[in-house]
Amino acid sequence: MVLVLELEHVTKVFTSGLFGGYEVRAVDDVSFEVGEGEIVSLIGESGSGKTTIGKLILRLLKPTSGRILFRGEDIWSFDREKLRRYYYKNVQAVFQDPFASFNPLHKVDRVFDLVFRNFLRGVAPGEREELIKRSLESVGLNPGEVLGKYPHQLSGGQLQRILIARALLVEPSLLIADEAVSMLDASTRIDILNLLGEFRDKFGTSVIFITHDLALGYYISDKIVIMYRGRIVEWGDAERVFGNPLHPYTRMLLESVPDLSVRWEFKGIEPEREEERVYEIKGCRFAPRCPYARKECYEKPPQTIEIEKNHHVACYLYLKG
Ligand SMILES: Nc1ncnc2c1ncn2[C@@H]1O[C@H](COP(=O)(O)OP(=O)(O)OP(=O)(O)O)[C@@H](O)[C@H]1O
């Protein structure tokens, strides 16, 4: 399989607190790959580092260590021109709140301006209208119903579709969808997921689907990456991870979803300071919540091993010795 994106031992440490005295390893030694036309879901509860990974891939943040490769090239080796014209044309993103991407004082059509200015400069004005209409139709919108409107005149689902149309206008190799359907109602959510699947099938677009919702991840993905407090605990083919969950955390998540058609939400909110302390644990960060935790779990992060083909876990339960 041709690889579009590779994360190699990526770590991002934020320093916070007075005089930068406190460190949060928001992303800790994370490695995974995205193949051409693959849909990969990053799943984890709040604070697991999903959004930070999205920002690192979009080069909005620089890794503290590790490398991110796009089609074999380190994204930090790109100069400004290559970043704008090549990388951002190939890697597009859609975020959670569609309303935040529109200026309420401007007609929605304005969101297409930047794309034409940066990536489609040679397109003539007449052709431009045609391209916009076609891309709106491809996401199931009637251009006559949305063009010329202000954001408040449209629904969240329509606005999110416009943003997806804009992202797909440049035919990216990779789309990052960060909680992109969380704010939409259930049926619109499924329509948009189906749409991403269609684009994958038609154009070979790879998707990184970031979500805290296990059921959505299961619905859409080829590959699943389960994260806990900055680290990958389990990853592999979606069928294998869901059919044979290995990590106690993955099992706990699945047990809290009695019915995969029902939206899952994590309810166990701990006090913030406690949450932060978890990042200081030298070993497995899930250890304080794990029924099987033993001494070594607190001492050193468990190695990741492949248990069956395309199914990996980082847990001492599976390590000998
Ligand atoms: N700029 C920052 N400065 C300091 N800490 C940060 C910063 N950005 C994120 N963090 C911390 O990094 C950790 C991971 O955050 P991140 O937003 O990536 O998680 P997430 O899985 O996307 O959660 P959510 O679903 O709530 O967005 C959290 O503890 C968060 O507080």
TrEMBL record:
Q: Name one GO molecular function term.
A: ATP binding
Keywords from the named record: ATP-binding, Nucleotide-binding, Transport
Looking at the keywords, is Chaperone present? no
Q: Which CDD domains match?
A: ABC_NikE_OppD_transporters
Task: State the Pfam families in the record.
Answer: ABC_tran, oligo_HPY
UniProt GO BP: peptide transport
Question: Taxonomically, which superkingdom?
Answer: Archaea
User: Where does the ABC transporter domain lie?
Assistant: 5-254
InterPro entries, alphabetically? AAA+_ATPase, ABC_transporter-like_ATP-bd, ABC_transporter-like_CS, Oligopep_ABC_C, P-loop_NTPase
Q: Check the record and name the PANTHER family matching this protein.
A: ABC-TYPE DIPEPTIDE/OLIGOPEPTIDE TRANSPORT SYSTEM, ATPASE COMPONENT, ABC-TYPE DIPEPTIDE_OLIGOPEPTIDE TRANSPORT SYSTEM, ATPASE COMPONENT
Entry-linked NCBIfam families: oligo_HPY (TIGR01727)
Q: What is this protein called?
A: 321aa long hypothetical oligopeptide transport ATP-binding protein AppF
Species lineage: Archaea, Methanobacteriati, Methanobacteriota, Thermococci, Thermococcales
